[in-house]
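Quick question: what would this complex look like in 3D?
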Amino acid sequence: MVQGIVNWSTELNEEWLQNYVDDWVAFYRKHTKDGEVASYIPKLQEANPHHLGITIIGNNGLEISSGDVEIPFTIQSISKVISFIVACMERGVSYVLDRVDVEPTGEAFNSIMHIEMNQVKKPFNPFVNAGAITITSMLNGNTSDEKLASILNMLEKMLGYRPVLDVDIYESERDSSMRNRAIGYYLLETGLLESDLNITLETYFKQCSIEISVHDLAKIGLILANDGFDPQRNEEIIPRQIARITKALMLTCGMYDASGKFATYVGVPAKSGVSGGIIAVAPPRVRDEAMPFLSGCGIGVFGPSLDDKGNSVAGIRLLRHIASQWDLSIF
Amino acid sequence: MVQGIVNWSTELNEEWLQNYVDDWVAFYRKHTKDGEVASYIPKLQEANPHHLGITIIGNNGLEISSGDVEIPFTIQSISKVISFIVACMERGVSYVLDRVDVEPTGEAFNSIMHIEMNQVKKPFNPFVNAGAITITSMLNGNTSDEKLASILNMLEKMLGYRPVLDVDIYESERDSSMRNRAIGYYLLETGLLESDLNITLETYFKQCSIEISVHDLAKIGLILANDGFDPQRNEEIIPRQIARITKALMLTCGMYDASGKFATYVGVPAKSGVSGGIIAVAPPRVRDEAMPFLSGCGIGVFGPSLDDKGNSVAGIRLLRHIASQWDLSIF
Amino acid sequence: MVQGIVNWSTELNEEWLQNYVDDWVAFYRKHTKDGEVASYIPKLQEANPHHLGITIIGNNGLEISSGDVEIPFTIQSISKVISFIVACMERGVSYVLDRVDVEPTGEAFNSIMHIEMNQVKKPFNPFVNAGAITITSMLNGNTSDEKLASILNMLEKMLGYRPVLDVDIYESERDSSMRNRAIGYYLLETGLLESDLNITLETYFKQCSIEISVHDLAKIGLILANDGFDPQRNEEIIPRQIARITKALMLTCGMYDASGKFATYVGVPAKSGVSGGIIAVAPPRVRDEAMPFLSGCGIGVFGPSLDDKGNSVAGIRLLRHIASQWDLSIF
Amino acid sequence: MVQGIVNWSTELNEEWLQNYVDDWVAFYRKHTKDGEVASYIPKLQEANPHHLGITIIGNNGLEISSGDVEIPFTIQSISKVISFIVACMERGVSYVLDRVDVEPTGEAFNSIMHIEMNQVKKPFNPFVNAGAITITSMLNGNTSDEKLASILNMLEKMLGYRPVLDVDIYESERDSSMRNRAIGYYLLETGLLESDLNITLETYFKQCSIEISVHDLAKIGLILANDGFDPQRNEEIIPRQIARITKALMLTCGMYDASGKFATYVGVPAKSGVSGGIIAVAPPRVRDEAMPFLSGCGIGVFGPSLDDKGNSVAGIRLLRHIASQWDLSIF
């Protein structure tokens, strides 16, 4: 890595920053060997475990990309952020939060026990599978394509283009995710589903199979960093209250059962997915006066080699390093 | 309450602000009837359930107090914040976090199950009793008075005076808290305690019995809001990294199993205790440019009537209202 | 009730015995008001909560029936006894018990948690739903009708006639039991199912819907009391080892999470179902020399008003009374 | 092992039987290497893992001993059987069972979770530590020696001599068993203890440290096999109802979380302890007509090498073999 003490508050030229990020990506790429790619569906297992890429888009116009940023991947659990936002916009925040709680939990990410153990009989939060499936069932539309359109419309507004599905992944998830079907029937039993189960699950599998890039994740992060406002097109995409609640949820529940550690050691709202993507959100802060080259940013990371919590093993370390170097923590 | 639309960004004179806060305290005082004072030790049960008081100390010198701010009360679980900070300063952050995890949990605040269910055999976080007792066992000193001195020294540095114990409460807790003794023996069994059990528990009961005021809580909150720096005496009290980790923990785990809801609906790092105290921390933010009368603040609340999670029932609602009116959320 | 001290070891004529049983049924019928009929499917809810009937068939030829013995009802969970026996006969005991454990559990009868919490990843026992569905998946046959035939063949051998399905109940269960579908998909995820899920569930819903009478239950009980040998037709129906393992399972796991209490207070192998049926097995014992009028017996009970564990509220008390009076406990 | 097909119903001379048992002990002694001696206190760890001994005392006067029957050992958890019997005799069965439930559980033997998870707030059964400590607190006496005397009196009546404590083991348990102290304080918190905690725990540690032999265990087993009646001295030691409830509890909860497997594969009431002792009870049955050389028996086993459930690894296999050969199962 580039040696020496860096005073980030000094204005750096873009080339220098790019060099630093390139160095860090090169360094943390070695950490990809400490994890494994997701294996529960064959298509995900084909991912190259050595891949690591990052895009950072700052509020001041700076954009840095480094590593394997050209590889498209499926959005997976990061779609839970989008469906939560859309459901809140379509139904109202209180409608959604009356049906899904917002408490983090120390348990593993896809446990059925979650639902059973919360005495108020609501899924623990929108980012456990039970909560996410419940939220998908609330989306407008009578078919899975209509429901999916709600999500794709939001993504199109955010990204400026309409993402497509990876049909292989979708079919693979649809045919193999027996645990999500189990959760679905459990939700049906407890009366939490607001749509037909098959339509809900089909939508859920489709939303997880949306193809995305690290640049897309960084752009979504930038919008969230600005409380739902897109500074590049000068337009509010998400109502402010919903954007902020979403960030609170990402901070407390976004990284599976490593959420507490991520909040403590990295300190920014984030959400990961089993394909290796992470979206991270660094809002502008008073301290950013000391870092004029960013002044708030969105970050997209891709690194399909996962740790035992289901998070990108190198991605998390890279984010921790950057957050520490550039003092991105919201705390 | 004072009617009309308020534009808080307009500079308000201090009298107006005081009037608003007085109104809110009067309004939320009615909510004290929705809870009950803690009953597990007789002395706590003597608290007046109708009490509600608040002090807000802003970075810009503004200080507002309203309601029952003259009533001293014991710090209880809020002392876990202080002992965590002291242990990190005495032993180093990584030493402490190697022994106590930082994951929130959906379970009730004093459950022994916490320890058993975390596979790595560490208490879930420093704010569940098992974690707090483990941390107290790490404090410097060979006697409970020496260990307590570590905490009192820190409080004296923060507050400018050395708080005293409420001896009745201390003796009451020492003689009645069988659950904490159970937890203590469990920790001894698992090898987590770093001091003699009786000395550790004695220290723990003493630290919970330190007498404090809402003004004290607001002052501690102000120091945390400034990353450990006391703006009033121009002095660093807590190393920056430790102050920020503490805030991350408060946000994810500070309000028992309502922590997720507090993060979502109020959005500031906070810690509550069963005597009815809450400390809340609103760091300065870019958005505060719109609220020059505060520019970051510490808040102390006291309201001994508790909800079923163990948090001040009126205090939480008052904080939610203020955070919403003045846009204090860190998200 | 018939008053006076009774010396049951004195030979009583059949009329006297009948009078006693009639008295007891009349007395415990009043207890039917302490429970409620199962409500999870409409057809079950139509049951008359005041019904209570019993048939006792002794090894020595004595047969006593009293109360509502003419009402047919569906076998429900009692079918788990039959499917377990058939699977053991078709596959071998060790094949079956390699895939389903035999440990009782303090948890509720249909919990999904059961599967997750047993570290060896097997359903806790053949009588929790997860275990029963796994066992149904092992039955011979490629269709649900072929699999069901295995069960009906066994029942025909035991009863001398081929029972029929209550099609309304079957369709109702098939269309409403979302929890069993949830369990089914969970089993599919964990690789425990040995047949197609839909065929397995269809079979399971059919086997639960077999129509039966208290006399039938008493007859099955008599065969189990004789270690699988039918004393009336002088023929072995179930291999001895399988019959005895079945009784051990009934004793430890047969009455949902009241199994321990039933073993302690009644003391005979038994299995209940949500339609209100109970099958109880009292093997011949040395002590029966003192009770020559029975010398081992099978008992069938029907009382659709259920307690909060899912067992016939009056049926359990009637069985406890009879077991105590006639000293039926195997202990 | 002795070869050939054995017809046990043929009267065998005592020498032959002795030869068979000697063979089996020699064979299963090899299995001692599949386990480990208890290590939680140093004194227990000194046990010789290769030891295996058995004594069988039949109702007809036959007594067979084989292997390491001369080694004294501490009674440990088998004392829970005695304290339960004594408490029922002193307080009445319903008093005891109102305070401790009788449900088996799939959980490990000394879990604190047991208490918390049973909604009625009673320990799951008298043989988990929480239940046993609660029962010890009910024993007559104001000091631990007085309470212990209740247990020693009962043992003296059963055995014809008054056993002594292994003081080293007692002191070791007293000083090291932090988990039992944790359970004790938890019971104190929930109001379940009926005596001073320290006196209760002292009694509990003493009762576990009573020195015993396999012959003693066999004799106690014989008395239980005869419903509390000692056939050798022609005297009732335990009331019949209590003896039978005790056997029901042993069958459903006696072998930690292998109780279900032991009931299924061996089929007799039994209780084990971590020093490697097992007491097994085979009541006389109709089938015993075929085995006149026993006609009901008590069995004591000692084999300090334990399996992962805490049961004597070779002892369980030896018992299974004997129960199968001689058809001892009560089912």
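Answer marked as accepted. Chain B is about 45% helix and 10% strand.
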